[in-house]
Design a protein that fits this description.
Structural class of chain B: alpha+beta
CATH class of the largest domain in chain B: Alpha Beta
Number of strands of chain B: 4
Distance between the termini of chain A: 67 Å
Number of domains of chain A: 5
Strand content of chain A: 5-15%
Order of helices and strands of chain B: HHHHEHHEEEH
Radius of gyration of chain B: 19 Å
Helix content of chain B: 40-55%
CATH architecture of the largest domain in chain B: 3-Layer(aba) Sandwich
Helix content of chain A: 25-40%
CATH class of the largest domain in chain A: Alpha Beta
Low-confidence stretches of chain A: none
CATH topology of the largest domain in chain B: Glutaredoxin
Strand content of chain B: 5-15%
Mean pLDDT of chain A: 93
Number of helices of chain B: 7
Distance between the termini of chain B: 30 Å
Shape of chain B: elongated
Low-confidence stretches of chain B: none
Mean pLDDT of chain B: 90
Oligomer: heterodimer
Strand order of the largest sheet of chain A: 12-11-15-13-14
């Protein structure tokens, strides 16, 4: 076996692959070979580093040098300078946005300083396609440990850790396992929910792409604890890379005797099958997910019976989300007490967030529970993009709500977020600035839930449609003040009467924005104005005196709404204008404004 | 050989491929969705005839097959264009202006979401989050990802890339 003295890690997450990280790996390997160093230097494609904003990311070990926005053409220089001569390539280093100084290694980057990686412990460190790298980092030893305990002891350990479901519900995981354990049956199932449907959240995908074995191992532990021999992963068909890596992980685990019969020489029998989703948000709900795995429409049913009593093919079934599972091996490796020492009183451990929107450092982060929003947005996230003013952060996706300036110092945990009118959800965190119109954001989420409503119960099927229609009226400047009352009343009725979580939480984005940004709704209704300048129907494009009459805008206008002679100020015919903004994009003199 | 019979021969071969997949399933119970995934990958879409075939082969009422096909957004009953275009409308892309990017595509191609251009070249879809939020707003043509699409000009450039 070769003894590598240096490792070049290249991010192989979906974001970085979209910007050519595969080609970078090939080029690096080519130049390492050319330099005759393939015995000493290993080039690895790893899972997501989290720093998606500056992808593709290349990290060099042992010195942790962190290169950003690397292109395949840079590979030669990286090898010749850094690897051969030991000189860092300055121009590719990350530069701190405030001090503008180059940061040479990842340990000194603000983005990583406040993070704590538990669920993502291996993402960006190992080759996800190589089971031996996982094993080298204590992989599958948690399973061995669990097998030396009784089933009840395993469950008690998970209970003691205080781990709560990371998919959104926040239900205590150990308790859930116990329910499934206590329900006796000839066959039980362990299900991993990898149907990440929240738009703007991609933590589950990143875990499966970067560290699939952690999920495989955790499912086997769960199988032992509750007495199930069959595991199923329900995954979105839209995640081809995650599927590929998971399939490989399952296959390798079988070959190593870590899945199948007599696992690690014990009596444990456990295997995993992959089931594909087909794009339905409601399938994130346990009962809907189970129906979808059975090949039916993914419609939810009332609980009880809970899946722990009657789930997949009416057998006791334990459903946990990907991130929840990824935490399990660590609980056994480091102990439940260690895990419970992180976080707040009722929310233990860490949480992975997909930080996105109008923020400088878009990416995947993992932070201890109890960290404040301010630390997440300003320290890790690097503040708001283009120096704009922070307005709000949306958590919990289509089921969640908004937090604002005044909530910046609240410690983030399950209960605090609910108390503030939002929720943890699966971990999407979308940052918005002064240019975002909140009624329009509420409308965006309602468009989503209305489309994703499965149609089984009336409050959700019809109710979300009516809510959306009212929001459309308001954002077009045709709303009345009575509409606000109707929005509120209808929202509460839907919350109280819808069948499943999708419907019950669908009105949250409306209620939350109505509470916090009431004035914006009023401005749309009474003044027929969109303060953020987003709602097209309430805006007019105008040409100012800066216009020099170059005719570029008139030529680009798809409806010929712009007239004017060469070298004279042009004019927009408001009747013809469809407000597409093409003229504003085209104008080199910033002469076109919208107001 | 007339062109009509070429077509039939091709279709027969595709059906045979699907039949083989179904026959080799270890368990037919609960397999409807995976069979439809396979069928769509073979035929490109799920027309009525394919749905009837799947129903018969699995012993499931066609109404149930249609119920499943129409429920899930991944399944389509209309053939996609040669170059399927998908605009990400996940929240991260939305707040960075993806809805406006989608409008430009609609205008430039003259089709709505879910439709295919008359020449069969492009189809347009909106999808929710490909997980490349760092590149928002994101557009996919087939499996190729285009990131940070901001202006109408950039949209036109993408379309032009696929015009022969």
């Amino acid at each position: 076996m070769s003894k590598f003295t240096m490792h070049i890690l290249v991010c192989g997450g979906t974001g970085c692959i979209s910007s050519q990280s595969n080609e970078i790996v090939e080029q690096l390997k080519f130049h390492i070979n050319a330099a005759n160093m393939s015995e000493e230097v290993q080039v690895l494609k790893t899972g997501c580093f989290g720093f998606c904003e500056k992808g593709p990311v290349v990290k060099i070990l042992p010195d942790n040098t962190f290169y950003v926005q690397v292109t395949p053409e840079d590979a030669e220089e990286l090898v010749k300078e850094h690897i051969v001569k030991g000189r860092k390539v300055e121009r590719l280093l990350y530069s701190d946005p405030t001090t503008e100084k180059k940061v040479s290694d990842s340990k000194h980057m603000d983005f990583y300083k406040k993070q704590m990686r538990v669920a993502l412990r291996n993402c960006g460190f190992i080759d996800p396609d190589n089971i031996e790298e996982y094993i080298a980092r204590d992989g599958y030893s948690a399973l061995g440990q669990a097998l030396s305990m009784t089933q009840q002891e395993v469950i008690d350990e998970v209970k003691k850790s205080g781990l709560r479901g990371r998919g959104g519900g926040g239900f205590p995981t150990g308790l859930k396992w116990e329910f499934a354990y206590k329900n006796e049956a000839d066959q039980k199932y362990v299900v991993c929910n990898a149907d990440e449907g929240d738009p703007g959240a991609f933590m589950d995908r990143s875990i499966l792409e970067g560290d699939p074995h952690s999920v495989v191992e955790a499912m086997a532990i769960c199988g032992y604890a509750i007495g199930a021999t069959q595991g199923l992963v329900y995954i979105r068909a839209e995640y081809p890379l995650a599927i590929k890596r998971l399939e490989k992980a399952i296959k390798d685990a079988r070959e190593y005797g870590l899945l199948g019969k007599n696992i690690l020489g014990s009596d444990l029998e456990f295997d995993i099958e992959i089931k594909f989703g087909a794009g339905a948000f409601v399938c994130g709900e346990e009962t809907a997910l189970i129906h979808s795995m059975e090949g039916m429409r993914g419609e939810p049913t009332t609980k009880p019976p809970f899946p722990a009593a009657s789930g997949y093919w009416a057998k006791p079934t334990n459903v946990n989300n990907v991130e929840t599972f990824a935490n399990i091996p660590v609980i056994f490796l480091k102990g439940a007490d260690w895990f419970a020492s992180i976080g707040t009183e009722k929310s233990k451990g860490t949480k992975v967030f997909a930080l996105a929107g109008k923020i400088n450092n878009v990416g995947l982060i993992e932070v201890p529970m109890g960290i404040t929003l301010r630390e997440v947005i300003y320290d890790i996230g690097g503040g708001i993009k283009d120096g704009k003013k922070f307005k709000s952060v949306q958590t919990g996706g289509p089921s969640g709500g908004c937090l604002t300036e005044k909530d910046l110092d609240t410690p983030i945990d399950f209960d605090n977020l609910i108390a503030k009118g939002s929720m943890m959800g699966s971990g999407g965190m979308i940052v918005m600035d002064e240019d975002d119109c909140m009624p329009a954001v509420a409308k965006f989420y309602l468009e989503f839930t209305e489309e994703e409503s499965c149609g089984k119960c009336t409050p959700c099927r019809v109710g979300t449609k009516r809510l959306l229609e009212i929001l459309e009226k308001i954002t077009q400047g045709k709303g009345t003040m009575e509409d606000i009352d109707t929005l509120r009343e209808l929202s509460h009725v839907i919350k109280d009467t819808a069948l499943c979580g999708l419907g019950q939480t669908a009105p949250n984005p409306i209620l939350s924005t109505l509470d916090i940004f009431y004035d914006e709704y009023v401005a749309h209704i009474k003044d027929k104005k969109c303060p953020a300048g987003q709602c097209n129907a309430l805006l007019q494009y105008k040409i100012t005196d800066k216009c020099i009459g170059c005719t570029a805008c008139a030529r680009v206008c798809p409806t010929n709404a712009i007239s004017g002679a060469v070298k004279q100020k042009h004019l927009i015919d408001q009747e013809k204008c469809i407000k597409c903004g093409a003229c504003m994009d085209k104008c080199k003199f910033a002469a076109i404004i919208k107001e | 050989m007339s062109c009509e019979s070429c077509k039939n021969e091709l279709a027969n071969e595709l059906y045979a491929q699907l039949a083989k997949f179904i026959d080799e399933l270890p368990e037919k119970r609960g397999a409807l969705i995976s069979v439809l995934h396979k069928a769509q990958s073979i035929f490109g879409y799920l027309p009525r005839e394919v749905q009837i075939f799947v129903g018969k082969k699995l012993g499931v009422p066609v109404s149930q097959v249609y119920g499943v096909v129409s429920f899930y957004s991944f399944f389509t009953m209309i053939p996609k264009g040669k170059y399927p275009i998908s605009v990400c409308l996940g929240t991260a892309c939305y707040v960075r202006g993806a809805d406006k990017v989608l409008d430009v595509f609609k205008r430039e191609l003259g089709i709505e979401v879910g439709q295919t251009t008359a020449d069969g070249k492009f189809s347009l879809d909106a999808l929710r989050c490909v997980g490349a939020c760092g590149l928002a707003p994101v557009v996919l043509v087939g499996e190729k990802v285009y990131g940070r699409i901001g202006t109408a000009e950039e949209v036109k450039k993408i379309i032009a890339e696929y015009q022969e």
